[in-house]
Give the backbone structure.
Amino acid sequence: MRLAAFIRANIEPIAAEWERFAATLLPAEEFSSSVLRDSIVDLLTEIAADMDEDQTAKEQHQKSEAHPDRSNFTQGVVVRHALDRIRMGLSARQFISEFRALRATVIRLWQRGSVEIDSDSLNDMIRFNEAIDQVLGEGAVTFTEQVDRSRELFLSMLGHDLRNPLTAISGLAELLLLAKTPERHAQFASQILVSARRMSHMINDLLELARVRLGSGITIQPGPTCIRHICGSVVEEMQAAFPKRAFRLKGDDELPGEWDKNRLCQLVSNLVGNAVQHGADNSPVTITAKRTADGVEVSVHNEGTPIPRDKMPKLFDSFYRLDNGEADTCSSSLGLGLYICKEIVAAHMGTIDVQSSRNEGTTFIVRLPSTRQAGRAAA
């Protein structure tokens, strides 16, 4: 019997054997025989129907890669199956194991029927494995996308919900500083305020990450502003926050353009904070702003231990840290600072790079077109 016909004639035995395996992957309280049986019957029916259809060599190749240009014959069934598994709490490894078991179950039961090995049966095996590969590919993509989306929604909600109590803590600490309290109490209030502001920075980073991952990206509101003024205000803030550190501002005057002032303040502040955190204490942090042919260039330089060359490509990844825990930015321990910098620069159609060596120190270089339109034209 041809494999497609065997599958249609033996859907119930196949489903029963596969169901027993799948049940071992699921938490007992979440196990639902009807959910398992419905999804596997639909999948097997679609696979058998596809095996009966002719396909070109191109379609065969695309199917093996779950190529989106090919008509995804099982896509609706697989998406529902993947969503069911996420709700049941399965891991990606368990999800993949289900399809490995399905493949083995069908082939084992078919071989028990004393199948004659000829060209037709070999072709059936190939077609069946292609179908399973496509199902697995589509399912894995859906599974991963939904898990990622759930994680980003969680981060977004967590960051949003933490803001209100943190704002209350900061407000109370500020009131204590203004009140006539013993000096020791004022010191405690000051420490609380510093810690609350650091937490607020981390929460903002989480919210930025969630917005980017959920598809909205870093939003900007460009308007007339000056890079020199932005760098100057950041230096003033950093000098007040780190009075023992030296800061130098160099470069051309004014440097006007159309950018989002608040976002660029965030960008420069992140980079300068990174330089303070990881640079040598006895050397200055230098911020240089200068004009280029199509916009401006802002660089932040510090002396100190260089960044290993093999780590540089990963510096702008979210949640990335060097092994020694010294590759993050923004006075934050989440590993999001440089990632957010990269997204701000990308929203302005610019570029960001890093150069680091023992002799030259570390320099982050941001290049921005004078307007987003100029950036699009250059791209």
About this structure: The first strand starts at residue 223 and ends at 226. Residues 324-333 have pLDDT under 50 and may be disordered. Residues 153-213 form one domain. Residues 119-178 form the longest helix (60 residues).
